[in-house]
Design goal:
The chain is built from three helices and six strands. The protein starts with 9 loop residues before the first strand and ends in a 16-residue tail after the last strand. Bound molecules: tetrahydrodeoxyuridine. Tetrahydrodeoxyuridine binds next to strand 2 and helix 2.
Length: 160
């Protein structure tokens, strides 16, 4: 038996203005998308913006449903919009921002497990990391270097 340590690293920014300008632009697109979320049940709005290698930004937001499990997270709305519109296009980054009608979200909100899994498929296929940037409504912003760094021991097509 042996024990292994799995490390991941992240950059933490105190404010958006400290980030490189292109990251600020992407996060602002996520914030803009967040404002159009359809989240009448959770009152928790999430926006996601994806930067493609062409420089184009594709955004999405959470879309809820009266049959709760039929709703969808912002990240998957955005990546499927990008994947279906521009198949095989390299994704450079995804920015995520979340807010609530009931309180101020001041902690960075990372993508849920299902969204990490979904996004990792694109990262593996393109053989290039996708940077992940996430924040709440206010407060610190987390920037990680890849999807797989957020998903150790993940499942992928090599097992099939
Ligand atoms: N949500 C997202 O859009 N992304 C996440 O990564 C976590 C959760 C949405 C789903 C649901 O509409 C609301 O936030 C509350 O869970």
């Amino acid at each position: 038996m042996k024990k292994i340590d799995i490390a991941t690293s992240a950059l933490i920014f105190d404010e958006l203005s400290q980030m490189p300008e292109s990251d600020q632009t992407l996060m602002n697109a996520a914030i803009e998308a967040r404002a159009k979320a359809y989240a009448p049940y959770s009152n928790f709005q999430v926006g996601a913006a994806i930067l493609l290698e062409t420089g184009e930004i594709v955004s999405g937001n959470n879309q809820e449903n009266a049959a709760y499990p039929s709703g969808m997270c912002a990240e998957r709305v955005a990546i499927w919009k990008a994947g279906s519109t521009y198949p095989n296009m390299v994704v450079k980054k995804i920015a995520i921002s979340a807010a609530s009608n009931t309180s101020t979200v001041d902690k960075p909100v990372g993508p849920c497990g299902a969204c990490r899994q979904t996004l990792s498929e694109y990262e593996i296929n393109q053989k290039q990391p996708i940077e992940v940037l996430f924040m709440g409504e206010v407060g610190k912003i987390v920037k990680t270097e890849s999807l797989l760094s957020l998903l150790p021991f993940s499942f992928d097509s090599s097992y099939l």
